[in-house]
Specification:
The complex is a heterodimer of chains A (517) and B (493). By secondary structure, chain A is mainly alpha-helical. Chain A has 20 helices and 4 strands. The longest helix of chain A is centred in the last third of the chain and has 32 residues. Chain B is 75% helix and 1% strand. The model of chain B has no long low-confidence stretch (mean pLDDT 89). Chain B is mainly α and 493 residues long. Chain B has a two-stranded antiparallel ribbon with strand order 1-2. Classes of the chains: A mainly alpha (517), B mainly alpha (493). Chains A and B meet through β1, α5, α6 and α7 of A and α16, α17 and α19 of B.
């Protein structure tokens, strides 16, 4: 038996979290060190897996199983990494590691904070490796309570109870809407299994090409299942009009949790929407693609405009992350090679970028004790590392060449430009429909630049308010390391995209073949 | 149907019931052999009196163990005692649930003021379990009614056991009035069934009705019987008694009512519908599905507004009955197995929740949710048990409630009940809200009394750990339990 690297990555945080909970409450440093060691260990394993993945090899590598779990219902334990899931596992590990680093100064119930942060990451790691839908939902819902508890206990006192409940319920709604679709699909599928690969085989054999009788009309089943699964999961990616939980929840959360939820958990939704929705139900994807691209565009433009008028530094980032998720949706909606690759890269790039944004907002708030932009200014003098990290994140956000945002966004726009509405889509569109979407999305980069530059200028440059001159100090060494790790990945991917491009290509190719022979 | 003559080989089937009768006697003797209050110091008395609860609990445990050895039903089930009883795997699993619930209830009663030290209390508890065991096995209208009354009358007494406490007395009275009323309604249904078919055996009634088709008379009987059983399982619209009785009854009895009595109701419901009304399932499945949807929705929506933990759990248990009915309305082997699985998990989970509540209210003297504020800082263990129980009720993995819900919904959707699953899933979202609300108070709030300590006597600790670990383990190790449930369910289709 080979070393079960994916299971070890997934369950190391669980074991470490339990160990931390067994420590006495006053041993805060031991809790921190254990958490850091566990995070570093999983990051090392994730890096090892990432760099030993062979893009020209089999689609799934580091396969564990499938082992029978509940054979009566066709439930298996099956972990494997493909070219799309592995970058996400690496992203989770990086956010976990940097999240522990920037949370070093949490003094209130440090033990529980570190333990629950690790528990939260268990579910996130697992969903990117799970190749069985039951296992997927099992791991996904494990995170429900840790994230609720962490926001409610360590969050921003003004909105934490509201934000925590809103975020938790929206994410729960998202997953159960998708669950209805999955159960429905299971009930009518020719193979009684929740294993994704066996379901894919059944799909290729035409098992899902059937019709449902709904209210007396015969409707192709995929047209009904797809929106449940895709839009259900896309709520986790904050799709318009069910996006309002994301800024509220992420602003209410403590810094490390904002990083994990906005940086990775939103990607869980889009990853699953692609992996389950588009891959299992290609006919449904083709039918709904003009709608997805429209909603994605609304995300991009609408959230960018809202970010423009925020006075709270953290809300800018909250809406910025919603805005950029729209690009992922648009990329998937093109059903083309460029769009898929771009969306896959954008998921990673967006995760790193959002994580660094939230980390720096947290550092600023911890030192200045305010996030109100008019009160801030000139902080670059006091914390140059944070300012640099934020500017690098800002460039990524605007899609500047040389940063990962450019590498990710350009293929999405190319895909949109090339795309045309598939045959049999929900509504006939003008031939320039996708191109129009592309133009509007590209123009909205100006808005992105406006709110990013405004934040950079108001927070980090300009005059330093007198009251900050003595109070505010520089960020800690661990904060600097965290900033360096995250910005390093944005630049690395920006100047050397080959580090991820072939892997993502390998990950999306099996799905792409369903649309482009 | 020819009567089945009695043979001694039928005795092993009823070993648990015989032993229960013996246990009741043992409890009485133990009680009598102990010195009366006043003879020794009160503290000494309290410790010795705890032995009553432990004797009862150990008795239940032993019976559970012995019945596994002696009374496992054969694969080919047969009517016994002249067709009065039926010894099948389904009934056997239900009896194990009742015994387990009885044991845990006895354990969490040991230190309760008043009830924990009275021999009568435990004797009545044992007879309630005895009645429930017979309910699960009955295959004859007369036997069934006797069994239902045996357990019901015992439960009325238990609910009102705190005579000095106005709320408990009110609960006992209310429960009795509602119970007596629905029981007569059900009895009328039984008499109609007998009148239309001339049979008392449930299976014989079923054959006769199958031959004649479902006319207005038997239809009325079906409604009347459903009303009686709806009361037992606290399905909407027969649920009005539940919150008041749950709130007023001694908390260990609330736990017992919410699990064992409900499970017994389901055991009878399955038996009556499947045995006496076969061939008409297209009709009563729709009835069950409608009942399930209404029960889930009403239970969950009203639970949102509750500020008393016992009332909250009362409405939650109404809602849980709805989820269980979803499994039954699937009308398939999987659906029936899911129902059994769900009931088993629900039994363990609710017992854990109420066990923790007993201990908290012993200290705070209150059942208001606000008084649970900051419990996690004062009593991390109890808070953890409540966490496990409430999240399992909410259907969050890795706890067993997740797979239970998943299984029920899978079975329902396999039978084409998509709308019912949609209703059920919307309800799980509502349910999660109020379970999280309670947990928020427990984990976030500041303790009202910084110095309060929450002692956990050993019998309680044992019962709570047993349930909590069970909920956690069964969440992972699913397959063996599904196998048992499927084996029990498959003979019904």
């Amino acid at each position: 038996m080979t070393f079960p690297i994916l299971s070890v990555i997934t369950f190391t945080p669980l074991v470490a979290g339990l160990l931390i909970l067994m420590l006495p409450a006053e041993r805060k440093n031991e809790a921190r060190v254990t958490a850091l060691a566990a995070a570093a260990f999983t990051t090392a394993l994730a890096l090892f897996a990432y760099f030993s993945f062979d893009p020209n090899g089999p689609r799934f590598q580091f396969v564990e199983g499938p082992y029978q779990w509940v054979p009566q219902l066709g439930i298996t334990y099956h972990m494997a990494a493909d070219g799309l899931g592995l970058p996400m596992i690496l992203l989770t590990a990086l956010v976990l590691l940097t999240g522990v680093m920037i949370s070093w100064n949490v003094e209130d119930r440090t033990r529980e904070f570190m333990a629950f942060f690790l528990f939260l990451s268990v579910g996130v790691f697992g969903v990117f490796a799970a190749q069985d839908l039951f296992l997927f939902f099992f791991l996904l819902e494990i995170a429900v309570f840790p994230k609720y508890l962490m926001i409610v206990m360590w969050g921003w006192p003004k909105t934490r109870e509201y934000g925590a409940m809103k975020l938790t319920l929206y994410l729960f709604i998202a997953s159960v809407v998708a669950l209805i679709g999955v159960l429905w699909l299971y009930a009518l599928s020719p193979v009684k299994t929740f294993n994704l690969l066996w379901l894919e085989e059944a799909m290729r054999a035409g098992g899902f090409d059937r019709t449902l009788n709904l209210f007396g009309a015969n409707v192709p089943a995929q047209h009904v299942w797809f929106p449940l699964i895709f839009f259900g999961f896309a709520i986790m990616g904050a799709i318009f009009p069910l996006h309002s939980w994301a800024p509220d929840g992420h602003v209410a959360a403590p810094t490390a949790i904002s990083m994990m939820l906005a940086g990775v958990e939103m990607k869980v939704g889009m990853y699953a929407a692609f992996r389950v929705g588009i891959t299992l139900l290609p006919e449904g994807a083709a039918f709904w693609s003009p709608v997805i691209v429209l909603f994605g565009l609304i995300n991009v433009v609408y959230a960018a405009y809202i970010a423009l008028i925020q006075r709270d530094f953290k809300y800018i980032i909250g809406f910025s992350s919603v805005s950029h998720m729209g690009l992922v949706m648009m990329g998937f909606a093109t059903l083309s090679r460029e769009g898929f690759i771009g969306a896959g890269l954008q998921m990673f790039s967006h995760g790193i970028m959002t994580a660094i944004f939230f980390a720096i907002v947290g550092m600023v708030y911890d030192r200045a004790h305010t996030r109100n932009i008019p009160e801030l200014g000139g902080l670059a003098q006091k914390m140059p590392w944070a300012a640099t990290g934020f500017i690098i994140g800002g460039f990524t956000s605007m899609g500047m060449p040389g940063f990962s945002g450019f590498v990710a966004e350009i293929p999405i726009y190319m895909g949109l430009w090339k795309a045309s509405t598939p045959e049999g889509a929900i509504f006939a569109t003008a031939p320039w429909y996708f191109q129009l979407m592309a133009i509007i999305a590209v123009i909205s980069i100006v808005v992105t630049a406006a709110y990013i530059l405004r934040a950079v200028q108001r927070v980090f440059f300009g005059e330093l308010p007198a009251k900050f001159a003595h109070e505010v100090g520089d960020v800690s060494v661990l904060d600097k390391i965290a900033i360096a790790i995250l910005s390093g990945w944005m630049i690395l991917l920006g100047v050397y995209p080959v580090i991820m491009y072939p892997m993502v290509t390998a990950g999306i190719t099996p799905t792409l073949r369903l649309f482009v022979p | 149907m020819t009567p089945v003559p009695f043979t001694p080989s039928m005795l092993p089937a009823v070993v648990p019931e015989l032993l229960l009768a013996a246990l009741a006697l043992i409890v009485i003797i133990t009680d009598l052999s102990q010195p009366r209050p006043g003879a020794v110091g009160s503290e000494q008395l309290a410790i010795r009196r705890r032995s009553l609860g432990i004797v009862t609990a150990v008795g239940f445990g032993l019976i559970l163990f012995v019945s596994l050895l002696t009374s496992l039903p054969a694969v080919s089930e047969a009517p016994i005692f002249g067709g009065m009883l039926r010894h099948d795997l389904m009934a056997f699993i239900f009896r194990l649930m009742f015994l387990f619930a009885g044991a845990v209830t006895a354990l969490i009663s040991t230190d309760s003021p008043v009830i924990g030290r009275q021999g009568e209390y435990y004797v009545v508890l044992v007879s309630a379990v005895l009645g429930m065991n017979l309910m699960a096995m009955s295959a004859d209208l007369i036997m069934l009614y006797l069994a239902i009354e045996t357990s019901s009358i015992a439960l009325y007494a238990l609910a009102g056991f705190l005579r000095e406490d106005a709320k408990s007395a009110e609960a006992g009275m209310k429960y009795f009035l509602f119970g007596a009323f629905t029981s007569t309604v059900m009895l009328y249904g039984f008499s109609l069934l007998y009148g239309f078919t001339g049979q008392t055996g449930l299976y014989a009634v079923g054959q006769a009705l199958n031959a004649s088709g479902l006319s207005a008379g038997p239809l009325l009987a079906l409604f009347l019987v459903l009303a009686g059983l709806g009361f037992k399982i606290s399905a909407v619209p027969f649920h009005f008694w539940a919150p008041d009785v749950y709130e007023g009854a001694p908390t260990p009895i609330t736990a017992f009512l919410s699990v064992a009595s409900k499970a017994a109701g389901f055991a009878v419901l399955v038996r009556v519908l499947w045995a006496a009304f076969p061939g008409q399932e297209t009709f009563w499945i729709q009835l069950l599905a409608a009942l399930a949807a209404v029960t889930m929705s009403v239970g969950n929506l009203i639970a949102l507004a509750q500020r008393n933990i016992k009332r909250l759990l009362a409405y939650s248990s109404i809602a849980q009955a709805g989820y269980i009915l979803v499994g039954l309305s699937a009308f398939s082997t999987d659906g029936m197995a899911a129902t059994l699985y769900y009931l088993g998990i629900y039994t363990i989970t609710n017992l854990a929740a109420f066990g923790a509540i007993v201990l908290v209210s012993r200290v705070t003297g209150s059942d208001e949710i606000a008084d649970y504020s900051g419990l996690s800082r004062r009593a991390p263990g109890l808070a953890l048990v409540l966490l496990v129980a409430l999240l399992s009720l909410g259907g969050i993995p890795p706890l067993a409630g997740f797979f239970a819900k998943f299984y029920v919904f899978t079975a329902a959707i396999n039978s084409g009940l998509v709308w019912l699953v949609v209703v059920g899933i919307i309800n799980s979202i509502i349910g999660l809200y109020y379970y999280l609300y309670v947990l928020k108070v427990i984990y976030l709030g500041a303790p009202k009394d910084e110095a309060a300590t929450y002692p956990v006597p050993r019998p309680y600790a044992f019962a709570l750990w047993l349930c909590a670990v069970g909920v956690l383990l069964v969440g992972f190790v699913i397959s063996p339990f599904v196998n048992i449930a499927v084996a029990a369910a498959s003979s019904w289709f």
